[in-house]
Amino acid sequence: MINEFSKSFDTELHVHLYGCLTAEDVWELGQDALKDEAKLEWFCDEFEKVEGRRPDWRKYWTNLSGIELLRKDYEFTSPGPFPAFQSRFNLLHALFPIKSNDASVLKKVMQRDAAAGLRHVEYRCFVPPYLIEGGFSEYVTTLTSAAAKFSMERAGEFTARIILSIPRINVAAAARWQEIKNWLLANQNKAEARYLVGIDFCQTEEGFPPEEKAWFFSEIE
Predict the structure, then answer these.
(1) Cβ contacts of 124 within 8 Å, gap of 6 or more
(2) Phi, psi at residue 202, to the nearest 5°?
(3) Which CA distances in Å does 10 have to 101, 154, 160?
(4) Which of 50, 116, 131, 219 could be a cystine partner for 135, CB 3.0 to 4.6 Å?
(5) In sequence order, what are the residues at sequence separation of 6 or more whose Cβ sits closer than 8 angstroms to the Cβ of residue 3?
(6) How far apart are CA 80 and CA 66, in angstroms?
(7) DSSP label of 191
(8) CA distance to 54, 69, 148, per residue, from 179 (Å)
């Protein structure tokens, strides 16, 4: 979410792409999304485990107060444990599974940020494990190409950059880092390569002290 300090400088250096989606965004995009009932019921199952109540996702788009029902089940408005946040964030996983050739969420968020008066934003984008088996390169190219196109169309007014989020588990982090290096080498002469500017460690922080990543930072150096 854009904070007032960042906004005063027209810059936001730490936003998670899907975390930028407001309840209104989710409701609007969700109207046209192909709804996978099994995934949405999974969202309800996980939500109920944490919150003790079960959402009725069908009412989001059939009830006159549907957007308010969605807001109640989606917005995380007070301090709480990570599982409570995740139980709400799962709605995005259910409605908008990441596809290697889809930049619709990024485009939606860039448009709103540019309209809000921001001039430079760096988006942290999660790469799901299933894309590692096939689709990683296409997904990174899709993101960086969309960021490049949008930025060039608004030259001097707005620039977007991509940061890839990788797991904290060392084995997975090493494998993801190798994929990133391979992509950078393969695309080093393409304009969109300069739109990938960083790496972010994601998901649960507890149990992963910084000293365990000394090998990673020494390799980047």
Answers:
(1) 14, 15, 16, 17, 163, 164, 165, 200, 202
(2) -125, 175
(3) 29, 15, 12
(4) 131
(5) 12
(6) 25
(7) G
(8) 39, 40, 21
Question: Residue 78 and residue 121: Cα distance in Å, rounded?
Answer: 25
Q: Which residues pair with 199 in a beta bridge?
A: 164
For residue 96, give every residue at least 6 positions away whose Cβ sits within 8 Å of its Cβ, in sequence order, or none. Answer: 18, 29, 33, 104, 105
What global pTM score does this model have?
0.84
Task: Name the nearest CA neighbour of 85 among 1, 159, 146.
Answer: 1
Tokens of 173: 């982090």
Strand order in the sheet with 11-16: 11-16, 120-126, 159-166, 196-201
| Residue 133 phi, psi dihedral angles, 5° rounding | -70, -20
pLDDT per residue rounded down to tens, the chain (221 residues): 344 444 446 899 999 999 899 999 999 999 988 899 999 999 999 999 999 999 999 999 999 999 999 999 999 888 888 899 999 999 999 999 989 999 999 999 999 999 999 999 999 998 887 877 678 999 999 999 999 999 999 988 999 999 999 888 888 888 888 899 999 999 999 999 999 999 988 877 778 888 888 888 887 76
Q: What is the β-pairing status of strands 120-126 and 11-16?
A: parallel
